[in-house]
Recover the amino acids of this structure.
C-alpha cells in the first residue's frame, strides 16, 4: 500500500513503538529559541542531565524579544547564549545576525527534504514547505529532543488538499490558507498532517509554500507538507551543491519524499481558488474568516507586516509595490518587521525599506515582537491591528485588543485606506 | 502520582487556546510558580473571573479542542501551580495533550454526549470529582446527585502519569 510524504519520512525514522499508537522517531534537527528553551535547559541542569545529543544538529536563535526589553527577557537570552557556548552549538544566531526562527532556519539551509525536526514552537509545521516533517512540541518534548535526539509521536495520518484553479489578482498564499482554515475549522486537522498539493502549490515559490504550511497548526495539524520539487532544489542549491552533481540529480533524490500515487489519505479536499477573494479574520479564532470586501471600512489602529507567516522578502515586495508612491492614512500607524537580517538587507538593496519609510511605516529589526504581544507594537485595550501574522486569539497582540489576519497586500492597502479594504489598489502581479 | 480529584471548574466554551490560558506577556517568567496568578487571565468567557473562580478547584471540565494554539508548556504549568492536574474534554489539541502527560498530568477525552450530559446535570452545582485511576473511573457528586463515568487513556499516557513525566523515562530507554 502506498504512503504519503509524511509517512515515508516517519517510517524511515522510527526507532521504537513502545505502546500502541506511539512511535519514537529519530530527529535530524532540534531548533531552539529563547522563550521555550531556557526552562528546558534549567530543568536539564537541575536533573544533572546538562547534555546535548549532537551539537551539529541543534540550532538556536534569539528572536521573540530582541533586543531584550527588560531584565527577564535579557535573562532568557543569557541562558540560551551561555548554553550554546557551553555545548559548542555553533549555529546560534544572536541579535545583529538573527531572525524569526521559521524564517532564518530555512534561509540557512537547515531544513531539507526528508528531515524530521522539532522545536518548542507550534509553527514548526512551516518546515513541511520543504518536504520535511516538522512538529511543534512543548518544553518537555524539547528537553528530550535536546538530550536524546528523539521524539514520541502518533502515526501521521494525512489529509490531502488539492489546490487548483487560477489564482485571482490580489490573492496570495495567505488568503488560500485562511480560506482552508475557514473551511475545515480550527480543529479540522488535529493530530493529522495537511498535505498541500495540486497545480497552485506546484507553481508557488518557497516563500508562499512556507506561508501555507505555517498556518497548518491553526487547523490543529501536526505539520503542513508539500512535495519537494525543482523549486525546493533551487532554493537549497547553495547548500546542497556539493552533494549532488546536478539539480536534476537532487530533484531525483528528493522525489523519494513524494507521496505514492496509491497513498492512503484520511480525506482528500479539492479546493478551487478561481473565485477566491482576499480574506480577513473577524473574531478571536483563525477560522473566523470572511472576504475582505465584507469587512470594508472596519476601523484599524495599527498595521503590522512581519512574522514567520508573512515577513519574508516576497511578502515585503508585494506590500512595497502597493505602498510605492502612497502615504499611509493618518488614522493609523504602520510597523514592518523584516523576518531576518538577510531579508532586511535584501529589502534595503531593493529599495523596499525606502518605500516603507516614505509611506510612513516604522521599520523594526527582525523579531517576533508584536506577533505574540511581547514587544515592538503591542496594541492597547480596544485597539485593532490589521496583521500579516497567524493568530487572532483574544489578547494575542495586547490585552483587550483585536487582531485581523490578512495578507501583506491587504495589509498594505488597508494602511493606505485607513480601514480594512479589499485591495483595489493592487494591480496584477 | 499527582492528585486528580477535587472541585470542578466548568469552562463552557470550545477552542480555548493556550494564549487565553496563559498570555505570552508572562512567558518571560523563569519559574512555574510565578505563573500562578495569571491562569486564564485572557479567557474570552462571559461571567468568568479568574481572580475568584479558580481558587479551590482541582479539575477542569470543558468543550472541544481545548489547548489549541501555541505550544507553550506554560499552559499545563499554570494549571499545575494552581493544583489543577486534570482536564476533561471531548477533544484536545495535540501539543497541549502531549504536554499534559509529559508533565505527569492528565488530559482525558470523554465523548461529546457525555460532556453534554455532565454540563447539563452538574455545571450549575458545586461539583466534586473523584478519580479512581486504576479502575479508569470518574465519580461526580453534587448536592444529592452522584454519577460515574468510565475513562480510558493510552498505555503510553498511563506510563507517563505513573512515572511522573517523560524525561527520565526517555533518558533511560533511548
Ligand atoms: S513570528 Fe509569531 S508565530 Fe512566528 S514564531 Fe514568532 S511569535 Fe511565533
Amino acid at each position: 500500500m502506498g504512503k504519503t510524504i509524511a509517512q515515508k519520512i516517519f517510517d524511515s525514522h522510527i526507532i521504537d513503538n513502545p505502546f500502541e499508537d506511539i512511535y519514537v522517531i529519530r530527529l535530524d534537527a532540534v531548533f531552539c529559541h529563547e522563550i521555550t528553551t531556557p526552562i528546558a535547559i534549567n530543568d536539564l541542569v537541575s536533573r544533572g542531565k546538562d547534555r546535548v545529543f549532537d551539537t551539529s544538529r541543534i540550532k538556536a536563535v534569539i528572536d521573540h524579544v530582541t533586543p531584550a526589553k527588560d531584565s527577564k527577557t535579557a535573562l532568557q537570552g543569557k541562558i540560551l547564549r551561555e548554553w550554546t557556548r557551553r555545548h559548542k552549538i555553533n549555529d546560534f544566531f544572536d541579535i545583529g545576525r538573527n531572525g524569526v526562527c521559521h524564517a532564518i532556519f530555512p534561509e540557512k539551509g537547515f531544513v531539507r527534504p526528508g528531515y524530521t525536526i522539532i522545536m518548542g514552537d507550534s509553527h514548526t509545521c512551516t518546515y513541511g514547505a520543504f518536504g520535511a516533517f516538522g512538529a511543534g512540541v512543548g518544553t518537555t518534548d524539547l528537553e528530550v529532543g535536546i538530550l536524546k535526539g528523539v521524539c514520541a509521536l502518533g502515526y501521521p495520518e494525512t489529509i490531502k488538499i488539492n489546490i487548483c484553479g487560477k489564482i485571482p489578482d490580489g490573492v496570495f498564499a495567505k488568503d488560500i490558507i485562511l480560506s482552508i482554515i475557514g473551511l475545515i475549522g480550527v480543529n479540522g486537522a488535529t493530530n493529522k498532517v495537511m498535505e498541500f498539493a495540486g497545480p497552485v502549490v506546484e507553481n508557488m515559490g518557497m516563500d508562499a509554500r512556507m506561508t501555507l504550511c505555517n498556518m497548518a497548526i491553526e487547523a490543529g495539524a501536526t505539520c503542513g507538507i508539500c512535495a519537494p520539487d525543482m523549486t525546493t532544489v533551487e532554493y537549497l542549491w547553495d547548500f546542497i551543491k556539493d552533494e549532488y552533481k546536478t539539480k536534476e540529480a537532487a530533484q531525483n533524490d528528493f522525489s523519494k519524499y513524494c507521496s505514492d500515487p496509491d497513498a492512503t489519505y484520511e480525506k482528500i479536499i479539492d479546493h478551487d481558488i478561481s473565485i477566491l477573494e482576499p480574506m480577513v479574520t473577524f473574531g478571536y479564532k483563525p477560522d473566523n474568516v470572511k472576504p475582505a470586501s465584507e469587512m470594508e471600512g472596519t476601523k484599524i489602529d495599527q498595521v503590522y507586516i512581519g512574522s514567520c507567516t508573512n515577513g519574508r522578502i516576497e511578502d515585503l515586495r508585494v506590500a512595497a509595490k502597493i505602498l510605492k508612491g502612497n502615504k499611509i492614512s493618518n488614522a493609523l500607524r504602520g510597523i514592518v518587521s523584516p523576518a531576518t537580517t538577510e531579508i532586511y538587507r535584501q529589502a534595503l538593496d531593493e529599495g523596499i525599506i525606502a518605500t516603507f519609510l516614505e509611506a510612513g511605516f516604522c521599520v523594526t529589526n527582525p523579531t517576533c515582537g508584536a506577533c505574540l504581544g511581547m514587544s515592538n507594537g503591542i496594541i492597547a485595550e480596544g485597539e485593532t491591528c490589521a496583521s500579516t501574522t497567524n493568530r487572532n486569539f483574544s489578547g494575542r497582540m495586547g490585552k483587550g485588543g483585536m487582531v485581523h489576519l490578512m495578507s501583506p497586500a491587504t495589509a498594505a492597502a488597508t494602511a493606505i485606506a485607513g480601514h480594512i479594504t479589499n485591495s483595489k489598489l493592487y494591480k496584477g502581479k | 502520582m499527582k492528585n486528580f480529584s477535587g472541585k470542578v471548574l466548568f469552562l463552557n466554551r470550545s477552542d480555548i487556546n493556550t494564549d487565553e490560558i496563559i498570555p505570552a506577556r508572562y512567558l518571560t517568567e523563569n519559574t512555574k510558580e510565578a505563573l500562578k496568578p495569571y491562569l486564564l487571565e485572557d479567557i474570552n468567557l462571559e461571567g468568568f473571573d479568574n481572580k475568584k473562580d479558580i481558587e479551590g478547584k482541582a479539575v477542569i471540565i470543558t468543550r472541544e479542542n481545548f489547548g489549541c494554539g501555541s505550544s507553550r508548556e506554560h499552559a499545563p504549568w499554570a494549571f499545575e501551580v494552581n493544583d489543577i492536574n486534570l482536564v476533561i474534554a471531548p477533544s484536545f489539541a495535540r501539543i497541549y495533550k502531549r504536554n499534559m502527560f509529559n508533565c505527569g498530568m492528565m488530559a482525558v477525552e470523554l465523548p461529546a454526549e457525555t460532556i453534554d450530559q455532565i454540563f447539563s446535570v452538574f455545571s450549575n452545582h458545586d461539583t466534586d470529582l473523584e478519580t479512581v485511576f486504576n479502575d479508569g473511573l470518574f465519580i461526580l457528586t453534587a448536592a444529592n446527585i452522584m454519577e460515574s463515568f468510565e475513562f480510558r487513556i493510552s498505555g503510553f499516557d498511563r506510563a507517563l502519569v505513573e512515572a511522573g513525566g517523560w524525561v527520565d523515562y526517555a533518558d533511560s530507554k533511548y
Observations:
- Chain B has a mean pLDDT of 95.
- Chain B is about 25% helix and 20% strand.
- Residues A 64, 100-102, 121, 123, 307-308, 368, 371-372, 389-390 surround iron/sulfur cluster (CB under 6 Å).
